[in-house]
Structures are given as C-alpha cells and as structure tokens.
Amino acid sequence: MPTMADVARSAGVSVATVSHVLNGTRPVLPHTRQAVLDAVEELGYTPNTLARSLVTSRTRSIGLAVSAVSNPYFTEILQGVEAGALEHGYSLLIADPHDDPGHERKVVQLLHERRVDGMIVAPSAAPRELVDYLTRHSVPTVFLDRMIDAEAHDTPRFDQVCADSAEPTALLVTHLASLGHRRIGLVAGLPGLSTTSERITGYRHGLAAAGLAHDERLVVHGDSSSGGAERATAALLSGAAPPTALVTANNAMTIGALRVLRERGLSVPGDIALCCFDDFAWADLFSPRLTAIAQPSRELGAQAVRVLLDRLAEPDRPARTVRLPCSFVHRTSCGCPERPRGPDPAAAPTEPPGRRPEKGTDS
User: Fold this and answer.
1) Among 13, 158, 187, 264, which residue has the least CB neighbours within 10 Å?
2) What's the whole-model pTM score?
C-alpha cells in the first residue's frame, strides 16, 4: 500500500507539502498541488483518516440530524449537505431525531461522541435539551430550516440557515384573495416550530394586505404530517362556514388535505382552491397542477455546510442567520387558467399573476 512518503517522492516534494495539500493546512502553489494530486491518483494513495484525526484533532466529518429524511423536502436538503460536504473533503454521518426532543438529544450526543467536527441540525419543536447539550459541549453547530430564538432559550446565538417563510405565505394568501376568495383557510404545521409560527404570521399579513379579517376558526394545525393534515382539514371543512380556498403549509400536509378533499367529493379548484408551501417533484403531475411556494432545498443544505465550515475556520466569529428566497410557482390549483409551460417552474416570477375574478363568499 503506497504511503505519503511514496507520494512525496513521485511528486518531487516533501512529505510536509503532501500533508498540506491533503489536509488544506497551508497554501500550496497550484502546480505543486496538482503534482501531488496526480501522484495520489497514479499511486492509488488513500489517506489514513484515523491517524490524521489523531494528529489534527479533526475527523473531517459532519453530523447531520434531520427528521423525516423520507420527506422529499428534507431528502433534497440532505443531497445539498452531502454535495457540499464532499466538495470540501468531508464525510457525513446522518441521524433521524424523529422530531422527538428526548431522542433528538440522544442522537446528537451519539454524533458528537463519534468526534464529528461540527453539526447541522433541524431542531424539534421543543429543543431545550438539544440546545443545552450543544452549548455545554461547545459543539460547532448550524441550525437548518427551523430556527432557534436565542433570547427565548437564554443561550448564545447559533449560526442558522433557513428559507423565507412569512412573505411567501402572505403571497399565497393575497393571490387567493385577488381571485375573489374571502374565506381562506390555513393548515399550519406543528406548534413550536419556527416555520409554523412564521407561516402563520405570513398568513395573517396576507389577510391584512388584502383587507380581510382574521378568523381563528380558519386556522388549524396539521402537525406537519399527512395524517395530522387529514384530521385538521376534515375539522376545517366541517365548520359552519368552511373556506372557499386553502393554504397548506408543507408538502406532507398538502397530501393529507388532498386526500380529505377527494374523500368528500370536492374538486380543486371547482369547489375549493388550493395553494401550498413546498413544491415537490410530482406537484406538476396532479390534476389540477399545484400552485406552490418552492424552497431552495438543495441550496439550503449546501449553504449550511459553507456556514459550518466558516465557523470551524473562525470559532469566534459572530453568529449569523442566512435566509434564502423562495419562488412562486404558478399552476392551476388556485383556479387560474392553464398557462403555457415555461422551461423551468422554479424560474417562475416571485410575484403572482394579477387579479382575476373567481367565486368566493364574504365572511
């Protein structure tokens, strides 16, 4: 098996230079770096990661704790994290906290015990134990998708990466209002998640911008799951004055809501208009095609890696929150007519189309 000394002899450099190239510990001239990489490729040299970690106190690994990895949204985030990690020579250790606060703390501890250099975590709705552990052990961490209120948890601020939630949700509401709807329901997510509270805030802002009163009876919690959304949508439709339009606050809840509408024989958008937060691969295959807010999921994952690596390089740098914009993907489930298909739905304008009369009832 070739050694680092073999690589150095083949490249005509010192062992220290080979080490700097492979570990990124010191700048090396481009032609020298290429000579080392060519020698590594030619000889089939494989670095001894364990030995290197003992010397550098770094394992070049990142822990990722994300619930519901089967959800297409988080699957795409995972792909972004993995691509970003590999690009910078890091491996990935993955755990699913199952949105359970106690289990969340356990899996994060297991990742930490495996000496990952840092962590990317999508926190649960009750992250007190998680925050306490990360703070106590000074674990370099980036919170992803779901934010932590540092003041509420009385803890130092962490780096955070998320998508905008409030303004895009308001956009869905004002679009439905522009089509004549006056009773717009919201199937919100799990209470305690920042994404849930931000989308409820956006919903209320959208109502206010459209001159519509806020009716608490039109807001139900689907607990960010398909089953929860089924129960919540059924309750919403059973009210004395059900909505004529519906906003669902994530992709899983969109599936649950659609299932209930189908079971009740309600057509979209003929009987009820529908817009959703989270675009997903088959949203364009439904009939009607789903109008949605698309999150930059892969870029969120890649950005989280970049922010974490910045933290590892500069442990004392101020914490920062990075918010990425979403896209309005206009289709037909809101009641608008079919439009010619563009080259890429994700490139659709962030502003919805103009006002078009549609049936609706006053509250």
Assistant:
1) 264
2) 0.78
